[in-house]
């Protein structure tokens, strides 16, 4: 049987999380650690993240039926699950009836290992050799002890994209995940190289609840880029746009 890409693929970052807020406060105060007691997987949305997720849901709900998702693939992390649930609820979708909601651990946040919960100041102070190594190797290939590089994330996403062509070819798929996942999906779908994806990353963080989307071209059987970091649903709803790095993220080089 011929496999093909989804008809439409949307990739969304979760709404602003409590971790995003805590990270901003810790960095501004020059603290070593981010003051948050949740495990990364359990970090919930902030009040603003809830508002952003609902705004995105209203935008999806207003789409014609032929352009709405038929399946949501979601990171198992709480902030992503809450975003997906709020989007579906606000759009008026009944999961299990109108569309399928599937959690997939391959969409989890990049793992930061020993750098987890450290600020830029904390990394420089506690692990100066790692900080220097990361600057030399670059974020694409650097793997902190106990953590992942971008390449590691891309390897797990390769099997996810293969699953999408095998099980969701011709469908309309919404992926709800994290900033690094959005960029690594772009790397795979757009056939980018290290220099190209890091240049995209240097231009700024992926806004919370922003959409990057692709449409299937039957002639080439490829996905063609449609929207990039689309934030109009938030702007139209009057929801503030935020683009903070994730709480546990290492600093940009």
Description:
Helices cover 40% and strands 14% of the residues. The protein is an alpha/beta fold and 253 residues long. It has one domain: Phosphoglycerate mutase-like (Rossmann fold, 3-Layer(aba) Sandwich). The protein has a six-stranded mixed beta sheet. Helix 3 links the parallel strand 2 and strand 3 (100-103). Helix 7 packs antiparallel against helix 8.
Largest sheet: 6 strands, mixed
Structural class: alpha/beta
Q: β content, as a range?
A: 5-15%
Model regions low in confidence, pLDDT < 50 over at least 5 residues: 248-253
| Number of structural domains | 1
Radius of gyration: 18 Å
Mean pLDDT: 93
CATH superfamily: Phosphoglycerate mutase-like
Task: Give the arrangement of secondary structure elements.
Blueprint (H helix, E strand, L loop, with lengths): L7 E6 L4 H12 L17 H15 L9 E4 L3 H14 L8 E4 L16 H7 L1 H10 L12 H18 L4 E6 L1 H11 L4 H9 L8 E7 L4 E9 L1 H6 L16
Parallel strand pairs: 1-4, 2-3, 2-4
Antiparallel strand pairs: 1-5, 5-6
Care to give the gist of this entry?
With 253 residues, this protein is α/β, with parallel strands linked by helices. The chain has helices at residues 18-29, 47-61, 78-91, 120-126, 128-137, 150-167, 179-189, 194-202, 232-237, and strands spanning 8-13, 71-74, 100-103, 172-177, 211-217, 222-230. Strands 3-2-4-1-5-6 form a six-stranded mixed β-sheet.
Features:
single chain, 253 residues, alpha/beta, Rossmann fold, six-stranded mixed sheet, 40% helix, disordered C terminus
